[in-house]
Structures are given as structure tokens and as C-alpha cells.
Amino acid sequence: MTAYLIRRVIQMVIVLLVTSMAIYALLAMAPGGPFSGLRQLAGAKERVSEAQIKEMEKFLGLHLPVQMQYVAWLTGDDWMGVVNPDWAGERKGVLRGDFGRSFKQNRPVVEIIRERLLNTVLLMAASAIVSLVVAVPIGIYSAVRQYSRLDYTFTMGTFFGIAIPSFWFGLMVIIIFGQMFKGWGLPYLPTGGTASVRPPAPGSFLYMVGAAPGTWLDRAVHLILPTMVLSLRSMAGWGRFVRSSMLEVLRQDYVRTARAKGLTERVVIVKHALRNALIPLVTIITFELPILFGGAILIETVFAWPGMGRMYVQALTGFDYPVAQAFLVITAVLTVTATLLTDILYTVVDPRIRFS
Amino acid sequence: MAVAELTFGAEDLARPEDQSQLQVVWGRFRRHKLAVAGLGIVIMLFTLAFIGPSVSPYDSTTIPTGADFAKARYLSPLSSWVDSEGESHFHVLGTDKTGRDYLTRLMEGGRVSLSLALVVTLLSSAIGIVVGSFSAYYGGWIDSFIMRVVDFMLTLPTLPIFLSVYTIIPQDSIPGGSITVLAIIFIAFGWIGDARLSRGMVLSLRNQEFADASRAVGASDARIIARHMIPNAIAPVLVSATLAVGGVVVAEAGLSFLGFGVQPPFPSWGNMVLAAQANMMSKPYEVFFPGMAIFLTSLSFNFIGDALRDALDPRLKL
Fold it and tell me: Which of A170, A178, A267, B114 could be a cystine partner for A229, CB 3.0 to 4.6 Å?
């Protein structure tokens, strides 16, 4: 197992290195860049001279040859004076947690990420928990009462959850629970942002529960709609997964044995069948976390949620490539880690699987 | 003469069998009521999208000019207006913020979204089948290399990558602009699933007796792959392609909604939702209709694909 782990970690490092090169190359090819706006300024007075642009390029480290830009981005340029005194700088590089400075906001990318990461993690965690809490009981019920009316209903629901375009569902939810509820005099929900700035208006759900701006209750209420939308898809997928996994387990001999020795149906299902049926779910969930992370891009845009996904979209539309690169690197690390974690979890939850 | 007669006889025998195979599949497919309903919806949507715009008296991109512009904009459904030449215009779903007939745009948007999905699915399945079956048939280091690439690409979170790739491809220099760019991106990532499916099928087929028999009578590798491997491996790819059509429609809509998809003035269901978002509180139906079209398409193809899986091979599990 140890040898296997070491080999996997080495593989992981190589994959990440190649990915980081691809990410850098991808965005180095992109049009625009920090000076595209400066060169297009209309008046001769405002226009920046080429000499000034050279100076700024040096400030941003763009005067290096492209492959050295990558090295500088990855490992920093504070040591590069050894190679070429002209290349020396003060950046520490991605490996030491320095993602450079944002072109648009002129501050370290790490600072921006620090503000955004927690919001995305909060949204992801809430969605994963809600999905599980709903999907597991539904999956169990559907399997135990296969082909019952409720099973058919849940199956239909699964199709809806998988087919519905999440961003449109988000907009519909905003229209219904934000706008229409307000019109009907029902307690309407907040439809954007992570917290209120002003005290809640009478008639809103926030007012009803007495949430003051910025409190944890206020934040929790803001989470309701985005979580509802983001969790739908994984809810459908996981529910389906629990159902089929449970169906398979229920046909096993040891379940029949458990029934034969006179255990109640409840004990058979919860203690014997469910435990084994949920094993594969653990791995599926770990594997899908990066997908949830990527899926949050649309939901964060719809709900004006200041998270990583929205940061990424804003960075790409604004040609703010250091920020976009940082997002892609984090996603890559998350994906590779999740894949490794999935493989390890297989052995932990199911001792029958051995790696050599 | 005898040979010719024999060939004729064999063809004659084969024909009813071909038909009955199709009938068997259709018979099994028909048992799924939702899939039949889905098929009906898909036919309806395609008819509206491909015939609708040419039947409609309005054009999807022409904006009324002069004094008419102010009169024609922001009309609610089932309303009409009289232009400066005294002609009356009736709009079933009203008009958008620049006075274009919303129903016509919805149908035209469907034409863009659906044809993109069809082209992408056809091409990526074709590439996937060819790559997958050749890779499996020949095996060796090429096969393991291709499968490494496929496995790696399958773990990638696609949406962030699509956004980056979309940004770096210059649209102005490509005929078809943003629509072609989307097609390239979707095909580049679309073939991998089909390649894996057909590879798995061909791996199990290539050493069976009928393959050995063709080899024994001297058929070339290309012929064996084209005539014996691919037709036998096509069922799972057909199912995944059906599901993929709905998937591409949703993906296109998502990208267009973020502004990284089909660019105006061409309508697509995705960018219509984006355009309608600004006024969604006063005109919620403008968000509702294009989104509902996406949803119906995706749902229908999901039902059809699910039934097709049952119909083509009841033992088949994807």
C-alpha cells in the first residue's frame, strides 16, 4: 500500500506539472492582456508611450521569454537574478503560494482568493449535505419498494433533475421565491449575495426570522436558494446511485440470511444492506467534488454569489489572466487530489480491494 | 448463373430479417410511454425550429427603424401595433427590447441550438467510434497512449476549460464565428466517451469467431473494422449519442448564458435567456420560454436514450 501510495503521489505531481504548463500556455496564447486597453485609448494625451508600456511589462514580469515567464510564475523570479540580472524580481511563484498580482484589481491574487474561497466552499458543502440528506432516504425507499408509485415518482424526478438547465432553474427560482412570493404577500427569500447590507424589509423571510444583516442566520437564509439549485443535480445522480446500489445488495445471500434468522426488516435494511450499499457512494461523492466546484460557476453567476466561479468568469471577461490561472490551478489540484482520494477510499471502505 | 441466383436468394432472405430487427427494436421502444412522448416533443421542436422561421412573417435579426422602433419594442404577448405605413403586426409572444418578434427568435434560436447539437453529436460520435475501434483492434502502445489521454480528459472539469478555450480562439477569423468555435470545443471533448464505449465493445468482438473467419478469407483490417466491428459495437454509442444531443443543448445554453457561447445578433436559446435576464422581473416569460425549450429538449432526449438502451439490447448497461 505504501509503495502504491508513493507511486500515485509521484504520478500526481507529474500530472499537475504538465497541467500547470498547459494552463499557463493556454492563457499565454489568449488575446488581450493587461495593456490592450492602454493601446486603444483615443486621445494622444492619454495614450501611453511604448517606453512606459515596456516599463510596466517589466513590472509585471512580461519582459521575459514566454517559457521563462512560466518558470517565473511557477517558482518565482526572486532567484532569477542568478541566471540573468535583468530577470530578477520579487515574486515567489505558485509553488510558494504566490499567484501573482491581478491585472485589474492591482493586488495579490491570493488576497482575492482568500475572500472568495470560503463562499464557494460554503455553497458546495451546503449543497453536498442537502443532496445527501435527500438522496439517501429516497434511494433506499425506491430500492426497497421497487416499482411502487413513489419509486416511479422519484425516477421521474431524477430525470427532471438531470435534464434541467441549472442556470435557468436558478432564474425561475428567483422569479418564484423572490418576485412572485413578494407579490403574493408570502415571505420571500433573498435572491443574491451572501449577506444583507440593510435591515430586512417587512414581509421578507429575513424579517420574519429576525435576521440582522451580517449575522450567521442572515447568511444561512441567503444560502437557501443557491443551495437548492446547486444540489438538485447531484441529488438526482446520487439518489439514482443509492437506489441501484441498494437493489444490488438486497439480492445478496447475506441479506437473505439476515432475514432468515428472523431479524426485523428495519434491522436488515439499516444494519446489513445499507452499510454495504453506501460504500460506493463515498467514492462517488469524492470523485464528484471537482464537478460541483465547476458547476458552481453558473449558479454563482445567477445568484451574484461572490465565489470562485464568478471570480473566474469575471477574470476571463476582463482579460485578468493571473486570476483565471489561479482558478484553473486550484481546480486541477482539487481534481487530481479527488481522484487519488477516491482510489484510496476504495481500499479503506472495501478491504477486499488491494493495490499492489 | 448459379452464383447470381444464389446471391439473389440470399438477399431475398436477408431483407425480411432486417425489417423484423427494426420492428423488434421499435416494439420494445414503444413500451416506454415517456420515450414515445419525448419523440413526439422532439419532432415538434425540430419542425418548429427548422420550418418555423421560414413560415414566420418576421425576421429574427431585423430591427424596426425610425418611429416604428419605439412602437415595436417591449410588446407583451398577443399584442399588435400599426407601423408608419399603416400595416398591422401581431406578435404571439410579443417583442424583445429591440422590437424583434419573440416567437420567431425563439424558433430561430432553436435552429441554431439544435443544429449545433446535431452536428456536434454526429461528428464526435463518428470520431469516437473510429478512434475507439481502431485503438482496440490494433492494441499496443498506441491503444494505451490513447486510453491514457481519454482517462485523463474524462477527469477534467469541462466547464472551466471550455470557458478558457473559448476565450483564446479568435472568432473573427473563423467562418461561422462563435458557433463554429463552440462546435470545435464540444467535438474536442465529445469524442472521448464514445471512444471508450466503442473500444470496450471492439475489445470483446475482435477475437470472436466471425472476426477470425473474415481474417481467414483474407479481409483487410480496415474492412473488418468497418464491416464487422463497428456495426456490432454501435448500439451503446447510439444510446450515448442520443443522450449527448440533450447534453450539448444544455451545455451550449450554459456557455451562451455566461456570454461565452453563441454571440448576438444570432439567437440561441442560451443567449436569449441571458438577454431576457435583465428584464426578468417585469417580463418573466422571456426567461421562461427559451429555458423551457432547452429543458424539454434535454428531457426528451434523456427519455429517448433511456428507452433506446432497453430497446437495442436489454442486457446492455452503460
Answer: A170
